[in-house]
Amino acid sequence: MTTQPPATRPNRLIHESSPYLLQHAHNPVDWYPWGEEALNRARDEQKLILVSIGYAACHWCHVMERESFEHEQIARVMNERFVCIKVDREERPDVDQVYMDAVQAMGVGGGWPLNVFLTPEAKPFYGGTYFPPRQWFELLQQVSNAYATAEHRPALDKSAEDFARVLRAHDLEKYGVKAATTGLSRLQLQQLLRNLEKGFDTKLGGTSKAPKFAMPVIWRFLLRAHALTGNHVERRQTELTLREMAWGGLYDQVGGGFARYSVDAEWLVPHFEKMLYDNGQLLSLYAEAYQLTQDELYRDVVTQTVGWLRRELLSPEGGFYSSLDADSEGEEGKFYVYTLDELREALGDEAPLAIDYYRCTAVGNWEHGRNILHRRHSETDFAQAHQLTPGVVAELVQGWRAKLLAYRDRRVRPGLDDKILTGWNALALRGLIDAYRAFHQADYLQLALQNANFIEQNLRRAGGGLWRTTKHGRATIPAFLEDYALLIDAYTALYEVTFAEQWLRRAEELTEYVLANFHDPADPLFFYTDATAEALIARKKELFDNVIPGSNSVMAHNLLQLGTLLDRAEWRERAAAMLAATQALAVQEPQHLAGWASLYLSLLAPLAEVAIVGPEAEAFRRELSRHLLPNAVLTGTTTASTLPLLQGRGATGGQTTIYVCYHHACQQPVTSVTEALAQIRAAGLPA
Asked: How far apart are CA 233 and CA 2, in angstroms?
């Protein structure tokens, strides 16, 4: 079956703002965006629905489009027999969640593109991911013929109703998990850690053999576990993983920033798309690892990745775009790889040494004799092997990067997904804040404040809520719990590095909105969708942490942090109730609930309430921030404040004073950061 050229007459997607939907606007398929027009037509005509879900940077989405959705004969069958709906999963994660869960309930592995067949009432009965064109063509006919046959239709309708019932079930019910009846303990934490360690790749880092995702939520938990327990297994595995990711092809050795995942166990061959959500979290991870270890590799990764964000994903107004495509000129990874001749052309006399450093060969380690740049050595080891000093090697590498970047910039660039998503921007904002916290570079904070102000000016809704996305000044789609939870977290962190109370108050307002609009009176966990949002066949709750931390675990952290900073006991109690609901599953399956595992640590260890008062409050805060303090909230002022943790506290004898308190019981006030650190670290985990 040969591929036909695309039709020239645009379909309904031409009026959308999503780059992914616009990519399909000239398909001969009569695509609808998700909405009432398409759903009403299916109900009125009693016509099957085909929902196809993907995102702009998805390589196999592009492949299926070229092979099937641009094919006139295939499109004709799709148009005649189905109401065809295209969904950008990044704009509508609620729709994606429902139908991804359905396909997985069918026993099919998830992924994108996700193609799901629905009854006219939008209930799923069959689906899958990528299909080659002939198989897709045959499947379209088989599904539509089966549904049109009186003999098979009742069975398909029953199957659809059964799947809908499964989708409406609470995730905890599906897993048979009940709320914890026992309290938190160090013994149970050790069991959780042992269960997580079972999945470690102790040779190459990560938690599985292949493919490998960065999974920052796991490694941030392990950094916290090491900081609080002193267990070196967690630290060793985390440092191994961070080093191997930074040395491998997963990391862009020339331009900075990480690809979405590695297809192999060695972190060599990436799936080349670069996502904002990964890189925002990895900024936080590498910055926190630097606070703990002072390893200069981590500083280099943060510096390069911030540079990439600023150079390639920053909008003129201060928002961050969503992603860069894996493909350019129709080839995956073409923008990022080099032949030996290209390296020689770009680097001249320095090419032989750089070729050795980046482990490149004439035959290449990628398609068509090209090389994915990577390393398997420290700069110290490389320097010794070539009779150089580490300082000279560092200077050489910096020069090679500049030359290779300039050479690469002459190429056709990968596609840019230029929509701006609230939750993903919040992850980038938090990453910049954590980078500033670790390195105190003023431009990191300036970029963070620019981004926070962009969010406030462009993504606030009337009534106190948020929008999910904006593009070219047009904000659309009410935000989801993910957006609120991640932004509350970022604003709380922004307060802690500036002591500007406007950010803390904004976090408080957004938390009040979540409590009012995402609350389930029957359960401490929150719904993923706003009470005022479009009703789907199921109103889901996000339980698991994945490549993005689960919205409920982030929200539970927020309630604990803000409940402490603002002295809201009911919020702290809600956080504890949320953990109790998930505790048993978090201990059993920590690789999927690492955000909950971090909350376990935060509730098990005493939470330090650190208040800094006096003229040098900012300098003291800056010095404290050089250290990884996973179980402390920070507040401060140079004058006076109405915040609960600062009331009645002043500078001793005019000297800046630090108060370290636990559950409102304070240690002896001190006037040096060294003394405060000793007080914070003295309160370890219970025996």
From this structure: 54
Using alpha carbons only, give the angle 541, 551, 130 rounded to the nearest 5 degrees: 75
Do 362 and 369 touch, CB atoms closer than 8 A? yes
CA 93, 94, 97, 100 torsion: positive or negative? negative
pLDDT in tens, 293-308: 999 999 999 999 999 9
Please give the Cα distance from 687 to 684 (Å, whole number).
9
Please return the burial class of 394, using the count of CB atoms within 10 Å of its CB with bins 0-12, 13-18 and 19+: middle
pLDDT in tens, 224-274: 999 988 888 899 999 999 999 999 999 999 999 999 999 999 999 999 999
Within 8 A by CB and 6+ apart from 502, the residues are none
User: SS3 letters for 69-133?
Assistant: HCCHHHHHHHHHHEEEEEEECCCCHHHHHHHHHHHHHCCCCCCCCEEEEECCCCCEEEEECCCCH
How high is the pLDDT of residue 2? 46
| Pairing between β-strand 323-324 and β-strand 274-275 as defined by DSSP bridges | antiparallel
Residues 6+ apart with CB under 8 A from 141: 77
Distance separating alpha carbons of residues 237 and 225, to the nearest angstrom: 12
Radius of gyration of the chain (CA): 26
Beta bridge partners of residue 114, listed in sequence order: 53
Q: What percent of the chain has pLDDT over 70?
A: 97
Locate the domains of the chain by residue range.
12-168, 340-410, 608-682
Q: How far from the centroid of its chain's Cα atoms is residue 453's Cα?
A: 21
For residue 569, the tally of other CB atoms under 10 A from its CB is 9
Choosing among 2.70.98.70, 3.40.30.10, 3.40.190.10, 1.10.10.60, the CATH entry for 12-168 is 3.40.30.10
**pLDDT in the model for residue 553:** 98
Q: Could you tell me the two tokens for 654?
A: 């005019």
What length does the chain have? 687
Longest dimension (CA), the chain: 88
